[in-house]
Amino acid sequence: MSSTGHISLTVLTPESTLLEKRVSKVSLPGSKGRFMVLKDHAPLISSLEEGDVVFESEGTEERIHIDSGFVEVNANVVTVCAEL
Prior knowledge:
By secondary structure, this protein is an all-beta fold. It has a single domain, classed as ATP Synthase, domain 1, CATH 2.60.15. The strands form two sheets. Strands 2-1-9-8-5 form a five-stranded mixed sheet, with no helix packed on it. It has a four-stranded antiparallel sheet with strand order 4-3-6-7, with no helix packed on it. The radius of gyration is 12 Å and the shape is globular.
């Protein structure tokens, strides 16, 4: 990714790709508590519980409600696999 502070967010469901977007940050409902991912975050894989995936793009905050899932963070790419 570029040095502009953006990361790539993809939200997948069993049925489709729900979202593919460049964002500045994303907050996720982790099984051990809510956490935020910013540019250059360390790689991780985490399970997710019911809650909102909240992300900011071009100064606008958006959210997607999920029932459960997991997330992979690696090299400024955040991939969420979720049940809605």
